[in-house]
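Final report, closing paragraph on structural work. Over the funding period we assembled a curated collection of sequence-structure pairs, and we close with a single example.
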Amino acid sequence: MLARTFVLKPIDIGMAPELKVHSDDPAGTAPYRRTWVGIPVWLWVDQPTESTWGPVTRTATYGGVTVTGTASVQSLGWSSGDGQVIGCGAGTPFNAAAMANQAAVDSPTCGFRYQKTSGSGTFTLSATTNWSVAWTGGGQSGNIAMPTTTASTTVRVGELQSVNVSQDGDTFTG
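Its predicted structure, as stored:
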């Protein structure tokens, strides 16, 4: 009964690349996430709350027995949509101002790099949170696995190509 009082929600996904309209998009384009093969993607729990990241404690009395339970996140798994799956904690938010004009670096705590393009479509990135409730009451204690919560977003992954040119304007040949 106590476990039913917990309202656990999916996390809000924090991610670099951010959700935006890009400068090369036609007018009226809806915001979306875009990155490139080999560029670091940072992941984090954005603005965590009691119901999205815990812990959250509830107490109730049933038949004269007081039971206290605490719901907490046991793990957070990320699926990139291109086959990569990683597990990490709350992650480190990307600070665009601090990283301006610097080389792209991997997140110190949670992230990956796409290894292939999404073609003409997108990849669906998902974050699945596994919860449990530790409870005590009436001289007993235990753990209850709770339903997982999942959040998702889409990302377009493109590929950049470069052409090396000599100082006199000729291209280099292999």
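The first helix runs from residue 50 to 53. The chain has a mean pLDDT of 92. We thank the funder for supporting this effort.
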